[in-house]
Every structure is written in C-alpha cells, then in structure tokens.
C-alpha cells in the first residue's frame, strides 16, 4: 500500500544511515589495502577495483554532503541526480537503480553481439562468393 509521510522519512533516514555505514566499512577496508600497498604487497584485480570504487565514492561524497547538510536542499537531489547520474556514491544506490544499470549494460552487450554476428555472417557470405 501507500506509505505515510512519517514512514517515508524513516525509510529515507535508514537509507542514508545504511549508505554512510557501508561507505565507512569500504573506507576502512580501502585504508588497509593502501597500507598493504605502501608495504610492498600487490593487490588482486578485485581488490584494486574495490579500492578505486571506494576512492571515487569518497570524492563523490563531497558534493553529496552539501545536499545532506544544507536544509531543504535534499529536495533538489533528484534534479541533480537526473543531470549527473553518477554523482551519488555507490553505497547509496538502491537495488532498482543497480538492476536498471545492469539491464542497460546487458542490452548494450546483446546489441554488440548481434552486430558482430551479422558482420561475421556477411563476411562469410562474401568469402563464399569470392571463392565460389
């Protein structure tokens, strides 16, 4: 059913709390990775990607904090997210946004595969005509 205003506010506060909590955990893990790097250890590809994502999230946090700290500025957040979709740190994304991104990536991959399949089929026909 439809949620009351109080429930919407509580849900939003929980969302922000969880986002900041996840970002804090990622930051602690990234700090350990940086410590390992400084002591000459090599990171795996997965660790390197996580470190880069966390650093990017920390840089995205600065403009995002303006919306959280300034009163009533959070009402403009949807407008800015529409203009700059990658502005939000990854720990603050909802499941629906993640699924939407995955669907877009999958559709792009399917289109590329379809294009490559058609190109190969056309090249095969051309080679068959040249040899025949």
Automatic annotation (TrEMBL):
Signal peptide: none
Coiled-coil region list: none
Principal location class: mitochondrion
Single annotated GO MF: ribosome binding
Record keyword Cell membrane present: no
Domain Letm1 RBD: 43-128
Keywords: Membrane, Mitochondrion, Mitochondrion inner membrane, Transmembrane, Transmembrane helix
Gene Ontology annotations of biological process type: intracellular monoatomic cation homeostasis
Pfam families to which the protein is assigned, alphabetical: LETM1_RBD
InterPro entries in the cross-refs: LETM1-like_RBD, LETM1/MDM38-like
Location(s), subcellular: Mitochondrion inner membrane
Membrane topology: Single-pass membrane protein
Transmembrane regions listed in the UniProt entry: 58-81
GO cellular component terms attached to this protein's record: mitochondrial inner membrane
Name of protein: LETM1 protein
Organism: Psophia crepitans
Top-level taxonomy: Eukaryota, Metazoa, Chordata, Craniata, Vertebrata
